[in-house]
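User: Structure tokens for both sequences below?

Assistant:
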Amino acid sequence: MAEHSMDLVIFGIVVALRIVVPLFIPKFPLPAMILAMIIDAADQTIFQSFTNLDLTNYQSYDKALDVYYLAIAYLSTMRNWQHQVAFDTSRFLWYYRLVGVALFEIFHVRALLLIFPNTFEYFFDFYQGVRTRWNPLRMSKRVVIGAAAFIWIVIKLPQEYWIHVAQLDTTDLVKEDLFGVPVDTGFGEIIRDNPLFFVALVCFLAALVIGLRYLIQQKLPPKDWNLTFRDHPSDVSVEALNQQVRSMRGKVFTSELLEKTVLLTLIMTIFVRIVPGTPSSPWEQMVMIALLLILNILVSEAVVRVMGWSDQAVAGSFVGTMAVNTVIVALARQLLPGDRSFHWTAALFFVFMISVMLTFYDRYRPIYLARFGDDRLEKRIADQLGVSR
């Protein structure tokens, strides 16, 4: 009994980290994103090594949590990114991958994940890495597009093939082919039996760090500021944001509403198909998505237009969408025919993530519009071209 309780504690800590850490991506983009990626890569290894839990359903939660932290990363670009070309590139990469994931969940063809690689994740890291010491506006359009192309072709295509098409496990490959031990052998035992290899590995990593430091200090352009990992929309004032929100109150059909609709439709399509306990038949899933989509948009738009850009609006948007989504899920359970298996934990998990993402969108959309919208866009592009020359 005590062992089972400890298993649940470990499971709860890991899942809590996967939920909470992405919430820091908007303010601390690079460290929070890298930490989220590390936890994502290590979670199942931790469960297998330190617990005896049945992880059959966790695969579904794992996919949903991947979409969750990547969605928050994309939404944070609305808040932080001042480079129009970089933002547009990241938006394309994000939606391109999201479409691929949705198609994969519908058709279950693994090659789709190779055709629609997750280039957005590393491109986000690239931009935020530049942002730690340099002003990203110094990057020309060629540098931005070139970085995205390099990540896509050289890094992500081989990685996506390795993981999703060849379905090779790096850990198993290292244990079996490199060290010649069974896959269930612990790394502690491997290190103990191969001390010279790991000494050499540590020396290589140290040399790599020294080389990168030399490259940064001697070969790259002079820094624009001291090393910083915090990001903020310093170019947009609160007055400009409130003015932007006020200008939105008289508009109904906007490009931002279209994007929100596309974003929620794709994410809900993915979540409804992977989260356990959601409706199983296609038409039930379509009804669920339509209800969630329409009511979520109505609530979030009403809160933003009435309360403006404030901390109270953020809290109101989150509480309102959480309440609406919970009611929709509860009604769907009662009204929709078919499979009555239902998991409230999974439902609340689904509701929470949708509500968080929608709240972030409503919070950061006015920043994006105040920075790039209307006549500001033309001026911004001209400024960037001036900087890039």
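Moving on to the next sequence.
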Amino acid sequence: MKVQLFIPCFVDQLYPEIAVNTMKILEKVGCTVSYNPNQTCCGQPAYNAGYIAEAKAVSEKFLHDFSSNDIIVSPSGSCIGFIRGSFEELFDNSSSHNSAKTIRKRSFELSEFLVEVIKVKNLGASFKAIASYHDACGALRECGIKQAPRTLLQQVKGLELREMKECETCCGFGGTFAVKYEPISIGMAQTKVNSALEQGATHIISTDISCLMHLDSYVKHENVNIKMAHISEVLASGW
């Protein structure tokens, strides 16, 4: 299957290893992967900050960069959620409306693509840890992704998955929310981390590195002994 790899700006600039792992995973399951080096951002940061015109310009570039009919796969539920949930409205009554309507139907988060589209559940990965899975808001609430990442993680050799009570609670990042409402954001991170620790977790795993970055900042500041892992890191381990 031919797929286009969409690497969000956040991953590209701060966590390029996630992009590499995603490519490795897609090639391992037999996909022919193309990467357009001209790609930049989907437009979500500007949109969430209220800069609608600027967001539309960036999103229009995204439509152009991914104009083929191939499936788009990304290691970010948040970005895929924005494409699915906001593109059609953003380009309503414009010449790009049909393109926006079409692209949302062929855009998938990595774990969702593996389990739901090509029906892969076991990648032969091994990752020794006790982990709790964090349902990132974008993946869960905008994409409806709940079971797919858990299905994949349950097949990872050496990984014991323990469900935390606050698995669906927001981590407190929320983009500019963490800046504008810092005390609340920190409190939400504390709740999330404590919920994982109650299960004896050594790691918190998620589909979205933005959530994990926020939680990682909290645990480092508070000297809490727990690590973060993007799902691509876990699925690409032990080959």
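User: Anything stand out in the second?

Assistant: The CA atoms of residues 171 and 189 lie 5 Å apart.
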